[in-house]
Structure formats: structure tokens, C-alpha cells
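Need C-alpha cells for this chain, all 429 residues.
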Amino acid sequence: MSLELQRYGDFSLSIHNKTAGQRVPLLGAIEVSRRCPLNCSHCYNNLPMNDLETARQELTYEEHCRILDELADMGLMWLLYTGGEIFARRDFLDIYKYAKRKGIFVTLFTNGNLVTEKIADTLVDFRPFAIEITLYGRTRETYEALTRVPGSYDRCLRGIRILKERGLPLALKTVAVTVNKHEIWDMKRFVQEELGLSFKLDPMITPRIDCSSSPLGVRLTPEEIVAIDLGDPDREKEWARFSSAFTGPAHPPGKEDEVYHCGGGINSFAIDPLGKMTICVLSHMDSYDLRKGSVREGWDHFLGKVRQKRAKRVTKCTVCQIKAMCGMCPATAELETGDPELPVDFLCHTAHLRALTMGLSVPEHGECEYCQGGSAFQLVREEANRLASGLPAPSKPAPVFLPVLSPSTSTGSTLPAASGCSSGGCGSF
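Here are the C-alpha cells for all 429 residues:
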């Protein structure tokens, strides 16, 4: 570990230690726009670049500055700018520079298509904490089958090159879906060996924030997802380490009836392009309008009350001890089922399959289809046996895509997911 990283690690740890047990908005995610030059079939919140009505409704530069002033006064340290596409806003660099002048560590999520020499030069002068670009495929054909915009692959690679040439803190990632799953490992090799950059992938897809389930058409099956886990020694080791560290009682003693157990509303928050403050980028059931009130009011009172919500029912998730392997949270449940407390079948299936393939015991946690004796246990065991034998997972039928659209004619079709170039989420910082 470099001295610079060690010093940063010590600094970060000291901040978290000093604020332990307090409600302080240390981590924020701001979606500056939902407009994007791409029309990805997996994205959870993209809209067309030429949607002028959407552009008019977005927070103004002055509103962004006012919000940043308040957040900095309240202790904000880390901020993610995401979208849509952040550079869809012509004034984004002005917003970004204002945040940097407040002394905030800023991370940028982008698809790279709109990155120019001028943008990169500005980022050299106002260096971000991190930049993440999503690579949707190793080949042009696969990349543009997902983005549905001709020329987008070359523009992405150009953006990557421009940022890399300037030595900016760049990392690449991908979202694993039915369209690009055959190129996952080629992408990893390309990024790590040819570009010399770090690479990560996420196969978890959710419905759109407008409740459309269209992104699920390209979501991998639980067996395909676990096959990816087992196909990468580093990923498999990380899952083993993670499960060892976090498998156990789902909720701390005395907090079993709380709905939320993440950092949302405790040390993190999200703000959407219209100024609505929420517990995270995926949850929109409870929101506070910052155009009608202060950040302090939204944080202290509104999100404070959201965090105090008590569960209305006991489910199989309540006492599940392998919840860390599933990713289930109120926000994902809200998108998948419309109810933040209901179990998400897809995630439960995936978690039990992971546990079985990794040899983890699953303590009884109520009536669960995927536990021994449950109606779907035989299915999970068959999948685990196939994975252990190295047999390929049965694939979903190939999705039927709309014709590729040019940026000027994009209609913003609701065929998009919660893992993408610009999704925030819990692990963004």
C-alpha cells in the first residue's frame, strides 16, 4: 500500500471513528440529470438528451450551490455525482468546481461518451477523488447492442484514453447482463492487462425507478450470477471473506424491528435531479423537497423519521443469517415488490445458491422455499450440482431489442437497471 493511500485510509478511519454513533451526512450522492446520450437496455433511470422539459425541471446551478453550502456546513466529506449522465449538463463542470472548492472529496460516475479534452483538462486542475466509467462490452457489437447508439463504443474508448493520458484516478466497471455475459472476462483482461486499470463488475439489476420491470429482461439468472462468482478466483475469495465477516444475525440485538439497517439516513443520503432528498438513490417512496425547505430540515427531521420506521410484519428475511450474500434491502424490495418489507424472491434464490456452492450452513429462518424442505430446495441443489460439475448454466431466451437509435432520435424507451454507468447505491464510496 502506498504511503498516500495509507494516509488517506487513516484519515478516513479517523473521520468515521469520530462520528460513530452520530447522525452526520458524511456521504452523499447527487444525480445531476437523468438525461443521457445512451439508450441502455438495462439502465434504471435514463431519459433522452433532447428531453427539454426534463432539463427545465432540473436543479439550477444556484440551487446546487445553495445545497452544497448547507451540506458542507453540516459535515459532508464524500460526494458522488451521478446520473443519467453527468456531462449531459453543460454547466456540470461549474457545479463540480464549486463542490471541489468546498473541500469535498468528489467521485464521478460517467459513461465516458461526452468526455472531451477540455473536460479532462479541467479535471486535472480540479482533481476528483475518483472517476468510474462503465464498459458495456469488449467488442463494438456487444457494447452497442446494449447501449443502442451507434458510435458509442468508440466514444467511450476515446473518453477512457483522454482521462488515462492525464493520469486521472480512473477505474472501469461493467454490469453483467444477458447481452454481454460472454465478454465479461475479456473485458476484465482488457482493463487490467492492457489498460492497467482496476475493474469490477456487478450482475444485480433492479426495475426502473418508475416501477417498470423492463430491465429484468436482461438480468442474469441466479445460476448465471453464481457461475460468475465461481469463474473468478479473486471474486470467489472475496465472497468467502465477505460471508465469513458478515454472515450471522441479520439485525443487531434490540433493533430487530427496524426497517432500515444500512447507512442511509445515518451517514449517507441521495438527492435526485429535481432536488428530492431520499435515503438512497434507489429509494423514492419517501422524499423531501429541498426546493421547499432546507437541507438541515430534510436531514434532521425528514430522513430522521424515515430511519425510525418500524417493521409491520415478520418475514423470512427478519432473522435470516445469510442476508449479507443477498443484497436485500428496503430500497430493492421497494422497486421489486412495491413494499420495502417484502422478501425479493430473486435475491433469496441467489443467496441460497451462493451459500450452497460455498458450503455455508443456512440456519432456519421461517418458511423459506429455498431452504432444505422448501418447495424450491431441489431446484437450488440441482443448480449447485451443475456449477460444481462445471456445466454451463441454462441461459434465458435472448432478449428482443428495439432498433438501435441515434442520439438525436432517442426516445428514452423504458428498457433500462440499477446497475449501470451511473448508479450510485450503497457501495459508492
